[in-house]
Amino acid sequence: MRSPMTPPLPEIDLAPYSVGNATRVTGLSEHTLRAWERRHGAVTPVRTQGGTRRYTQQQIDRLLLLKRAVDAGHRIGQLAELDDEAIAELLRPGEEPYAGPINEILAAIERFDATAVERQLELHFRALGPIEFAHRLVAPLLRELGRRWEHGLIGPATEHFASGITRSVLSVALREHGGSPNGPAIIFAAPSGERHEFGLLIGAILAAGEGFQVVYLGADLPVVEIARVAHEVSAAVVLVASTIGTEEAAMQLRDLRTSLDPPIELWLGGPAAGFDQTDEKVEKVIDFNHLQFLLRNHAESYV
Fold first, then answer.
1. For residue 152, with 0-12 CB atoms within 10 Å meaning exposed, 13-18 middle and 19 or more buried, which class applies?
2. Which of 80, 181, 184, 248 lies at a CB distance of 3.0 to 4.6 Å from 42, suitable for a disulfide?
C-alpha cells in the first residue's frame, strides 16, 4: 500500500510509451534498453502502480540521441553522464569544412546569381547525400539567412530568392531519385497554413532512395485532399510536416488520422506535430536519421 507521503504517479498521458513502443521507435532491443537504464542510468522510466515501465516523449528523444551517438562510435558509459545538449554537440557535423562553400553561396545569393547558387547546391548535394546535405549545408545556410534577415542585413526579396533556388534544387534531386513504382506508396504533404517544405523534400528524397513509391503533394494542402489521395494510391504511409503549434493545426492532424483507413500509418514531422503517441499507427519523426530508420524498417516489413 502506498504511503500518503508518496507523490502520485504521473498520469499515463505524460509517459505514453510502453517498453514495446520504446523499442519500436528507437530501434533498441529490450535487452539494450534495460542495460542502458540499469547499468548506466541513461534514462529512468516512469513506473505505473503495477510496476510497468513507461517512457515520456523527452526520454524517447534522449534514447534516440544516445543511439545515434553510440552508432557514431561513442561509448554509452560516457554518454549517459552527459545532458542532451552535450550529446547533440558531439553529433553535430563539423561545419568548418563547409564554411567556405556556405560563404560562397551567400555571396552569390546577395548578388542574385542564380546560376552560381544552383551549381554550388547541386555539387554539394551530390557529394554529401541528402542527410549530410541537410545538416551540413542547407541548415546552416538557412540559419545564417534567417540571422541576417532578423538583423536587417538582407531584405525579404533575398530570402525569397534563396528559398526558391533551394526548393528548386531539392525538387530536381527528388525527380532524379525517382523511387520505385513497385514499392509501398508514401505521401509527403503539409496541411493548410503550413508553407515550410524543405524538410518534406529531403524526406521524400530519402524515401525514394529506400525504394518507396513517393507521392509528393507539397505544402498548404487541405487534409481532406491528403486523405483522398492516400486512398486513391493505396498509400502505406502518409507523412505530414507541421510547424504550427495551434489548436486548429492539431485538429487538422486529428481529422486526417480519422479520415485514413486503419492500415495507413501517419508519420508526423516537425516541432508541432506530436499530438497523439498512443495510436500505434501514428509515429513522430524526430529527425532525418530517425526517418531513415523508419523507412528501412517499413520497407523490410513490406518485402
1. exposed
2. 80
